[in-house]
């Protein structure tokens, strides 16, 4: 069973005005979250920040940095529009969202400095569920030796974050 960890936002850039959900087809969100966690018995710290601006299937801005810190080292993943992203609108109304994919995973991986094959796919699902934006990554193409980006939810009204283990 997956556990959810509630955390207060570390920093919400520009206050609550920076989170806007104008319509079911548009998204404008900035987030910065962190929380302690447990990864196989080892204490870790999750840290994520990003800015996502979507208008239908058009990406006006996309940047997400996701880190996992251990006591002796850390790993981070990042993705932005320079990696060659495309968006697809999925669902409708309150359960609307987007699927973000890489156009060319091998090229994006090389751009990030990874010279080994970790997977050819990268999908990030952004799902609206009421006031929450659920961010669900499956992106082995960009993460090097790290397990993946963090799965989390951001409350679009308050900026509060929840990490899912």
Model description:
- The protein has one domain.
- The longest helix has 8 residues.
- With 165 residues, the chain is mostly beta strands.
- The chain is built from one helix and eleven strands.
- The strands form two sheets. The protein has a seven-stranded antiparallel β-sheet, with no helix packed on it. Strands 2-3-4-5 form a four-stranded antiparallel β-sheet, with no helix packed on it.
What is the element layout, followed by pairings?
Elements: E1 4-7, E2 26-39, E3 42-55, E4 58-69, E5 74-80, E6 85-90, E7 97-102, H1 105-112, E8 123-129, E9 132-138, E10 151-155, E11 161-164
Antiparallel strand pairs: 1-11, 2-3, 3-4, 4-5, 6-7, 7-8, 8-9, 9-10, 10-11
**Uncertain segments of ≥5 residues (pLDDT<50)?**
1-22
Main sheet: strand order:
1-11-10-9-8-7-6
Biggest beta-sheet profile = 7 strands, antiparallel
Helical percentage: under 10%
Indicate the radius of gyration in whole angstroms. Answer: 15 Å
- The separation of the N and C termini measures 9 Å
List how many beta strands DSSP finds.
11
How would you summarize this macromolecular structure in one to three sentences?
This protein is mainly β and 165 residues long.
């Amino acid at each position: 069973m997956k556990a959810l960890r509630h955390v207060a936002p570390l920093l919400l850039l520009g206050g609550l005005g920076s989170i806007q959900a104008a319509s079911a087809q548009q998204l404008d969100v900035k987030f910065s979250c962190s929380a302690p966690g447990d990864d196989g018995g080892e204490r870790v710290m999750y840290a994520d920040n990003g800015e996502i601006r979507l208008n239908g299937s058009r990406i006006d801005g996309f940047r997400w940095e996701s880190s996992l810190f251990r006591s002796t080292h850390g790993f981070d993943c990042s993705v932005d529009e320079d990696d060659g992203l495309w968006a697809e609108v999925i669902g409708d109304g309150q359960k609307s969202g987007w699927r973000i994919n890489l156009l060319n995973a091998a090229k994006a991986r090389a751009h990030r400095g990874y010279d080994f094959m970790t997977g050819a796919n990268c999908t990030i699902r952004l799902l609206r569920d009421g006031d929450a934006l659920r961010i669900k990554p499956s992106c082995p193409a960009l993460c090097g030796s790290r397990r993946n980006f963090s799965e989390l939810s951001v409350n679009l009204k308050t900026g509060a974050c929840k990490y899912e283990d």
